[in-house]
Every structure is written in C-alpha cells, then in structure tokens.
Amino acid sequence: MGKSLSTEQTLIPRQGLHDAAADRIREQIVEGVLEPGDRLNERILCEQMGVSRTPLREAIKKLAGEGLVRLEPNRCAVVHHLSRDEVAAAFEVIASLEALSGDLAAQRATGREIAAIQKLQGQMEAAHRDGDLHTYYRLNAQIHSSINAAARNPVLEAVFRSVNARLQSLRFRSNLDKRKWNAAVREHAAIAAALTERNGPELGRLLRDHLNRKREIVLKLMEHDQ
After folding, report:
1. How many CA within 13 A on the CB side of residue 2?
2. Cα torsion through 183, 2, 223, 165, rounded to 10
3. Which residue positions in the chain have pLDDT lower than 70?
4. Is the distance from CB of 106 to CB of 203 less than 8 angstroms?
5. 20-45: buried (b, 16+ CB within 10 Å) or exposed (e) per residue?
6. Quick one: which of 1, 19, 24, 21 has its CA closest to 78?
C-alpha cells in the first residue's frame, strides 16, 4: 500500500471541481501517496478536498480515461498497475513524441516562450540544489509540457498528454536516486541550451535520449520491486 492519506483538508475551489479533484488525485498517484493497486477511498478523498461524491466520481472517470485508474465491477476504483511491457511501449512512444516536439519547438517557439522555459530551468536547478524533489518534478513537468506546447501542433499535444499521464509517477520515481537525478539535471541544461540555439535536430535527439534513459531506469526499478 502507498503512504497513508492525510485527513487534513486541502479544499479546492467550487468551479471546475472534478478537474481540480482529478489534478489532486493525479498528484497523489505521481508522488506515490497512492500506489498501483491502491483503492480510491471516496469518503477520505471527499473529506480531503471538501467536495461531494458527484464531482469526485467525475474526476475518477477522467483518470480512468487517462489510464491512471481502473474501474472495478463492484464500482470501486483502484490505481492502475502498468506491466513492464506496457511501460516499455509507452516510453517508446513518448520518446518519439518529445523528439518531434523539440524539433518543432525549436522552429516555432517565440522568444518569450524560450525565455519562460529558461526561467523554469533555473528554478528547477535551484530546487535540485535544495533537494526539493516535489518542486523539482513540478517544474520538470512544466518544462516538458512547455516545449510540447511550443511545437504548436494540437494533435501532437493531445497524444503527448494522454501517454505522458500514464508515465508521470514512474518518471517521478526515476529521480529518487541522487546520481541519476544529477545526471537528469545536466541533460535538462543541454536541452534548454539547444532550444535557445534553435537547434531542432539536436534538441530532438537530446529529448529522445533523455526519455530512453528514463525508460531504462524505470524498467530496472520495476524489476527491483518485483
């Protein structure tokens, strides 16, 4: 089982309740508060977020559509467990998607977008120096999403979000090893530099290699867990 869920209330706004609830549960899955196989306790989640069961169930349906949650016949929902083959296949796809995003972003990103990504890179490096993995990962995900958005291809962006959602928790865990975390920071610095130089082929290659290394780390972690 994952870490015990806190009963402390972290209320969310009334507007967009099911989206906000989905975001909160997704974060718990990514950070290992909820682990593969864990059942989603509706009562506890409703208390945590200050929502009724209707928006919570809509949130769970959304997460099921993303492949993060599996709906059981008895109406309960559990965190989905990806097999080794599913993880390997998903990483193959996301590596190609990110490579394409990088190549297109180098051509299409505005100066303001590049500056924003460089700022995120600086903040991420600061979080790394502070040993703040939670903040680091949030900024890391923003960088990858920002590069993808700068590619200006809505089809690519939609597919990227769908596949990436299934891998977020595994990508988070890949940085728990300090040496691998240090290496990932260096790789990101090279990625940011290639974007600034608008070197599309190099940026695409760096992103593909970065994701392929993540895949190997994650698969080894899965073997260790088994």
Report:
1. 20
2. -60
3. 1-15, 226
4. yes
5. bbbebbbbbbbbebbebebebeeeeb
6. 1
Task: Give the model confidence (pLDDT) of 25-78 as tens digits.
Answer: 988 888 778 988 899 999 999 998 999 999 999 999 999 988 889 998 877 899
Please tell me the distance from the alpha carbon of residue 80 to that of residue 70, in angstroms, as a whole number: 5
β-pairing, 69-71 with 77-79? antiparallel
**Cα 82 from Cα 76, distance rounded (Å):** 18
Residues 6+ apart with CB under 8 A from 42: 53, 56, 57
User: What is the residue-wise DSSP string for the chain?
Assistant: --SPPP-------STTHHHHHHHHHHHHHHTTSS-TT-B--HHHHHHHHT--HHHHHHHHHHHHHTTSEEE-TTS-EEE----HHHHHHHHHHHHHHHHHHHHHHHHH--HHHHHHHHHHHHHHHHHHHHT-HHHHHHHHHHHHHHHHHHT--HHHHHHHHHHHHHHHHHHHHTTSSHHHHHHHHHHHHHHHHHHHTT-HHHHHHHHHHHHHHHHHHHHHHHHHH-
Tell me which amino acid residue 192 is: A
| Angle ∠(145,151,152) on CA atoms, nearest 5 | 105
Which tokens is 169 given? 């928790």
Tokens of 176: 């728990």
